């Protein structure tokens, strides 16, 4: 028996088929977690080609005799009985599911995957392995994905089931049928037709995924209470679970290192630019001796207790910040320290290792300047830090973390590319490289090094690794007091002038023919051309610039996909995220019923036809009688 669950036609970009189909299938086989969020990942065996006899032996080992179960073998052949076709070959592999939460006890859930390239079909045969060593093939949950070619280069992909009436679903190893047809199938079509490939490696490529999954759940349960007591202004769920994931990565990495090197003592660490210190707190609690250093103390530091060693100190690359007795240096979103961390690790000792998670783009002596337009800025910067690491003598490894952040790529230096006896020559390479970056960034270079004069190894070491701050001269640590630079601190009349100019330009792009005018749209680049260079420079000095200012004024503007629009508050689709449906309407009414309107309605005061909403429906004040004045004074632009 064979039943079609669902099918989709390819509407465009079918030129990528059938190769794109197999690429999409490989994503589903190797990375099911990208679409099924209940799975942490899979372990996969290498694919190999098998004939009928070997395939029969594999199925027999898992509880099914093809000589007695022709419906299974007929299903694998697409409904055609060819069980004695000894020349027919299948590509076979097996994957083991690793759920985020262990819902199966001691039972291990696997899938035999059979690829039939001749007929463009792939079959999934779920297997349960028991602790006593026996295995059972679940014939009720066998399914198949099939690519079909039609007339005029029309392609269709379909999912077929062997026994749909007996299908069992748990959403993990056994997907639900509506999910297979409504979620997986559209994803496969999209993956098959898009040509872009990731610039980075798969997530957690340096770790055993099952060990990571288990430890992450344990740490998440252990430290989730931090979300409720988080005293910082940052989002607690993002920062707590992100640091839990980073800590999990390091703990598993270090556990693997101890097993490989037969070590019994847990690794020591120093977190440079530790920020809120939660990563230091978790690693210390899990038995690793270490400390965190940051230029500015956070409020949450006092909550950790004396066992978490945190220092409020400005870090400068120098002999005063070398760590010869430390096993690992950590740079977790370490900003201006990021390129220095491989250098500091290399100079601390031959055995010092590092982990860095780059975020903001810094060179040794200032902001990183782009040089390659063919790469994304992020990829170019990761390559730069990798170049720094390699120049410092590390065998550099790259991996991608599973954290709630767009900046997820980490670099790891666990070993050196030279012997310890070659330290002098390695140091010369580091020194010359840093000097070249110093020249590129425009920092001042002193002494004979600036003139390009050569030195012997000993003299060069003495120059570069002299006491104090000499080898980091020109480095600018961040200010101890954090400066707020997001355009919110600019004078109000300065902001209002820009908002009015941009809004009037957008309104002038469409004709006012009686209806409320929502205006046209412009790219952010063209909006910038409306402003004077002096104004743009003021905005450039505020992190984010013009686009940040426009997004801050979300009452007036909507910025999506690089385009600036006038916000139309009548449209349900443009409500703030999360306010959808009946629940959203109730929440919106509760806000407006007793709301204190502390800001005037821009549209009521400035739009040619006023606000599109009635005063009772608008979240902003329509006139002075509707306004509760803000407690914050309005800043005025100082006279120059």
From TrEMBL:
Q: What is this protein called?
A: Uncharacterized protein
Origin organism of this chain?
Dallia pectoralis
Task: Specify the taxonomic lineage.
Answer: Eukaryota, Metazoa, Chordata, Craniata, Vertebrata
């Amino acid at each position: 028996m064979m039943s079609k669950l669902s099918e989709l036609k390819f509407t465009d970009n079918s030129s990528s088929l059938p190769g794109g189909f197999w690429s999409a299938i490989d994503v589903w086989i190797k990375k099911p977690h990208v679409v099924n969020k209940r799975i942490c990942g899979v372990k996969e065996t290498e694919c190999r080609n098998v004939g009928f006899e070997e395939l029969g032996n594999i199925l027999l080992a898992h509880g099914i005799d093809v000589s007695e179960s022709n419906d299974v073998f007929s299903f694998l052949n697409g409904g055609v009985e060819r069980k004695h076709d000894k020349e027919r070959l299948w590509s076979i592999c097996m994957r083991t599911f690793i759920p985020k939460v262990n819902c199966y006890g001691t039972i291990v859930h696997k899938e035999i995957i059979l690829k039939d390239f001749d007929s463009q079909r792939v079959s999934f045969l779920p297997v349960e392995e028991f602790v006593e060593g026996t295995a059972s093939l679940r014939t009720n949950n066998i399914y198949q994905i099939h690519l079909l070619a039609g007339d005029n280069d029309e392609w269709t992909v379909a999912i077929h089931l062997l026994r749909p009436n007996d299908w069992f679903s748990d959403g993990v190893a056994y997907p639900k049928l509506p999910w297979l047809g409504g979620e997986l199938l559209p994803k496969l079509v999209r993956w098959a037709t898009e040509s872009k490939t990731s610039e980075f490696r798969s997530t957690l490529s340096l770790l055993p995924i099952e060990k990571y999954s288990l430890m992450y759940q344990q740490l998440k349960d252990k430290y989730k209470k931090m979300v409720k007591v988080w005293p910082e202004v940052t989002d607690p769920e993002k920062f707590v679970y992100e640091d839990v994931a980073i800590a999990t990565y390091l703990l598993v990495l270090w556990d693997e290192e101890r097993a490989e090197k037969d070590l019994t003592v847990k690794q020591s660490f120093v977190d440079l630019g530790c920020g809120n210190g939660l990563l230091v707190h978790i690693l210390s609690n899990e038995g690793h001796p270490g400390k965190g250093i940051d230029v500015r103390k956070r409020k949450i530091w006092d909550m950790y207790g004396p066992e978490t060693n945190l220092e409020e100190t400005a870090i400068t690359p120098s002999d005063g910040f070398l760590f010869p007795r430390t096993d690992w240096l950590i740079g977790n979103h370490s900003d201006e320290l990021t390129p220095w961390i491989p250098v500091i690790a290399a100079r601390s000792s031959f055995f010092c290792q590092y982990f860095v998670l780059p975020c903001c783009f810094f060179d040794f002596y200032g902001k990183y300047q782009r040089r390659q337009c063919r790469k994304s800025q992020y990829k170019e910067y990761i390559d730069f830090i990798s170049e720094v690491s390699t120049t410092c003598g590390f065998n550099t490894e790259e991996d991608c973390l599973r954290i709630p952040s767009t900046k997820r790529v980490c670099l790891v230096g666990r070993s050196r590319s030279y012997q310890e006896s070659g330290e002098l020559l390695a140091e010369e390479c580091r020194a010359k490289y840093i000097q070249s970056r110093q020249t590129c960034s425009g920092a001042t270079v002193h002494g004979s090094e600036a003139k390009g004069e050569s030195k012997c190894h000993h003299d060069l070491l003495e120059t570069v690794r002299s006491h104090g701050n000499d080898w980091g001269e020109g480095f600018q640590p961040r200010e101890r007091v954090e400066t707020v630079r997001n355009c919110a601190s600019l004078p109000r009349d300065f902001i209002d002038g820009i908002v009015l100019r941009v809004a009037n330009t957008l309104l002038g792009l469409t004709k006012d023919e009686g209806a409320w005018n929502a205006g046209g749209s412009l790219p952010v680049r063209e909006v910038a051309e409306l402003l004077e260079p002096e104004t743009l420079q003021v905005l450039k000095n505020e992190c984010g610039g013009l686009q940040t200012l426009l997004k801050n004024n979300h009452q007036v503007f909507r910025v999506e996909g690089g385009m600036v629009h006038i916000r139309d508050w009548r449209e349900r689709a443009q409500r703030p995220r999360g306010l959808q449906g009946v629940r959203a309407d109730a929440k919106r009414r509760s806000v407006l019923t007793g709301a204190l309107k502390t800001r005037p309605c821009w549209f009521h005061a400035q739009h040619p036809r006023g606000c599109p909403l009635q005063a009772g429906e608008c979240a902003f004040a329509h006139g002075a009688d509707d306004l509760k004045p803000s407690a914050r004074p309005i800043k005025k632009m100082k006279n120059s």
